[in-house]
Amino acid sequence: MKDFGLKKLYYSISEVSKLTGLEQYILRYWETEFDQLKPSKNRAGNRIYTNKDITTILKIKKLLREEKYTIEGAKKILTDPSIEDSANQFQQLNNKNDHIKTISTPTNNHTGTSTLIKDLEEIKNFLLDLYSKL
Predict the structure, then answer these.
(1) Which of 54, 64, 66, 89 is deepest in the core (most CB within 10 A)?
(2) Which of 59, 60, 45 has the alpha carbon at shortest distance from 13?
(3) Which of 14, 16, 53, 61 is nearest to 37 (CA)?
(4) CA distance 117 to 71
(5) Which residues on neighbouring strands pair with residue 40, listed in sequence order?
(6) CATH code for the domain defined by 13-79
(7) What is the SS3 string spanning the chain?
(8) 10-14, 50-54, 75-79, 101-105: which has the minimum mean pLDDT?
(9) Against a cut of 0.70, is the pTM above it?
(10) Residue 68: left (phi > 0), alpha (psi -120 to 50), or beta?
(11) What torsion do the CA atoms of 80, 84, 90, 96 make, to the nearest 10 degrees?
(12) Would you say 54 and 19 are in contact if contact means Cβ atoms under 8 Å apart?
């Protein structure tokens, strides 16, 4: 678990706001949107956050702000983390596909290299076809 600098069991909303770099109103809004984020309240009715809550907040922040998921997308990932893994694998395949498309075929007038060029072109087409089916 991440060390937040404070050695406490519970944190106030103002402490969590400072730790996460998020405004308090955003934290309150996220509570209404994400079932995983339900901090307890003390006797005075003030929110008290645990380290688990803070970790969840940072995960939501990463999904929404860095990875550019919608709130609905972030909800699905928090419910089923395998969705994020699948999305990452899909992005990696797209990156490989883009790389394959950039392979240029050298032109050479020598007869020995023309066979090699044809073979490379066939491999390139095969790989493009393979990645398009994934």
Answers:
(1) 54
(2) 45
(3) 53
(4) 48
(5) 48
(6) 1.10.1660.10
(7) CCCCCCCCCCECHHHHHHHHCCCHHHHHHHHHHCCCCCCEECCCCCEEECHHHHHHHHHHHHHHHHCCCCHHHHHHHHHCCHHHHHHHHHHHHHHHHHHHHCCCCCCCCCHHHHHHHHHHHHHHHHHHHHHHHC
(8) 101-105
(9) no
(10) left
(11) -150
(12) yes
Average pLDDT, the chain: 82
Q: For residue 49, which amino acid is it?
A: Y
The C-alpha atoms of residue 107 and residue 113 are separated, in whole angstroms, by 9
Would you state the structure tokens that stand for residue 34, as one six-digit string?
Answer: 């994400």
pLDDT tens digits, residue range 4-21? 555 789 999 999 999 999
* Residue 3 tokens, joined: 């060390």
Per-residue confidence (pLDDT) for residue 25, from 0 to 100: 98
Q: Nearest Cα to 60, choosing from 99, 92, 26?
A: 26
